[in-house]
Amino acid sequence: MQTDKPATVLVIDDDAEMLASLRKTISKRGFHVLTAHNGSEGLDLLRERGPDVVLTDLRMPAIDGMSLLKASRTIAPDVPVIILTAYGSVDLAVEAIRAGASSFILKPLRSSTLLSALDAALERRCLGIDAGERPAAPSLPHIVGTSKAMQGLADLVSRVAPTTAAVLIEGESGTGKELVADAIHTLSDRREQHLIKVNCAAVPETLLEAELFGHEKGAFTGAVSARRGRFELADGGTIFLDEIGCLSPSAQVKLLRILQNGEMSRLGSSATLRVDVRVTSATNRPLEEALARGEFRDDLYYRLNVVKVHLPALRERAEDIPDLVAHFTRTYCDKNHKPITGITRQAMNMLERYPWPGNVRELENAIERAVVLARTQTLCADDLPDEVRALPEKPNDLVIPIGTTLRDVQKRIIEETLKYTDGDKAAAAGLLGIAPRTITRRLSPDRDDERGDPTA
Ligand SMILES: Nc1ncnc2c1ncn2[C@@H]1O[C@H](COP(=O)(O)OP(=O)(O)OP(=O)(O)O)[C@@H](O)[C@H]1O
Ligand SMILES: [Mg+2]
What is the pLDDT, as a whole number, of residue 90? Predict the structure, then answer.
């Protein structure tokens, strides 16, 4: 969807000097620039001139950056807005992201950061990533789950996969980041080429650069022969950089060069090599934290984060647990030649209630263990790990032993519901779907069960 026409950037800042310097930096890069000295002028230009991206200061008199952002979501919802802000107002900037800003840039400004953020916003716009509702997405290969969160993820991943955009995958440990990286490669037209994976935390820092970019003979002690790096091996395909937050500052500079113009050099050589590699990366912890501490380059962050895919923790999508349990039960039954056909309700309740700090990986391990241990064809509570079984029943659940008479069951349910509503009979009746006087009647010692409709 690239066009030859230069993209138009609308810049809004009440500081005239700043505005002039921004205009200079941005137009030097070949963009068409519109400037406004205040929010209302900015909104007029947004309406009349249809810019491709808006860059606005946060603190301005009258209409500030935040109000401008909100108004722009109505006037031109698909135009990305980048917020400029001083270090002191990071909280506000985060609020702006929640209100729909595409990113924020901290002052003092580095021109490389600004240009990276502009490029990323424009690329995202070409992909239609920020636009509204889409038809249902196809499911992703090997990824189980139909919760709303997983449907949104499948939609985003299936739209971004066929492009060459860099994707940053974020999520707690065990949420399926590597599976998403696999899906992106498989759904892209690079699927016949290599997908090279590098875990930046697993390779010692001193070796990582040689591993990624290769080296010439004698580049360092022990470099007895020249070696191609992972980027060269991935040429034409995709590289997945796991634990990207562990990249050293000098490796960050080299990666930035590749992302900016596809150029790199082996260690110990000044010859420039060109590589065509799609970069996906993953992190357990939000990179923004490393950014704020100055440990991660912000210009690199924008290049890597053209599209962010956030994987929700399993406890935030417990409705996916039954499907995952079925999937892993099948997988490990096949592997272990065990004929398991079901799971007890009690065991499933426990699995659904447990918060899974290790996410899907922990659930997978628990099911593998249960399948191996199971003595019957039905998985039961005894087959589950202690920590999963140990969780107390939710206070709102009511356990009634088999053998309780119907009369006593009704009495218990009414009593427990009254406890839950602090004795409020009307509220309890509402929860139970019966009339308040029925409660009084059911609890009276001389009630007659044969009299009248039980829900009357
Ligand atoms: N939605 C899912 N459907 C099926 N299997 C899944 C799903 N999510 C994760 N898994 C499985 O859980 C395990 C962990 O997934 P993966 O390695 O992709 O997680 P991760 O986020 O990369 O974890 P880490 O941060 O620890 O590297 C894998 O065995 C994977 O196959
Ligand atoms: Mg992983």
Answer: 63
* Pocket around ligand 1 at a 6 A CB cut-off: 143-145, 171, 173-179, 284, 327, 360-361, 364
pLDDT value of residue 429: 86
How confident is the model at residue 130, as a pLDDT? 54
What is the count of structural domains for the chain?
4
Give the end of a domain, one of 79, 94, 127.
127
* Distance in Å, CA 264 to ligand 2 centroid: 26
In a domain, 143, yes or no: no
What is the CATH number for 445?
Answer: 1.10.10
Q: Which residue type is seen at 88?
A: G
Find the 222 Cα to ligand 2 centroid distance in Å. 30
CA of 143 to the centre of ligand 1 (A): 9
In a domain, 216, yes or no: yes
Distances (CA, A) of 277 to 80, 160, 163: 26, 15, 12
Ligand 1 atom nearest to CA at 181 = 18
Note whether 382 and 405 are same-domain residues: no
- Which positions ≥6 away from 58 have C-beta within 8 Å? 64, 65, 66, 83, 84, 85, 86, 89, 92, 93, 96, 104
Same domain, 303 and 330: no
Q: How far is the CA of 341 from the centre of ligand 1 (A)?
A: 24
Q: State which ligand 1 atom lies nearest to the alpha carbon of 173.
A: 25
> Sign of the CA dihedral 58, 60, 62, 63?
negative
Distances in whole angstroms, Cα of residue 393 to Cα of each of 108, 197, 351: 53, 42, 12
**Domain assignment of residue 376, given as a range:** 318-390
Do 110 and 22 belong to one domain?
Answer: yes
pLDDT tens, residue by residue, 110-148: 888 888 889 888 887 776 655 444 445 567 889 999 899
User: Which parts of 356-435 fold into alpha helices (H)?
Assistant: 359-373, 386-390, 406-420, 425-432
Ion ligand 2: residues, CB < 5 A = 177-178
On whether both 340 and 225 belong to a single domain, the answer is: no
Please indicate, yes or no, if residue 451 is contained in any of the structural domains.
yes
**Domain-terminating residue out of 272, 287, 311:** 311
CA 159/CA 113 separation, integer angstroms: 26
- pLDDT, tens digit, 9 for 90 and up, residues 318-373: 999 999 999 999 999 999 999 888 899 889 999 999 999 999 999 999 999 999 99
* pTM of the model as a whole: 0.70
- Closest C-alpha among 104, 157, 128, 119 to residue 261: 119
| 56 in a structural domain | yes
Q: With a cut of 90, say whether residue 401 has pLDDT above it.
A: no
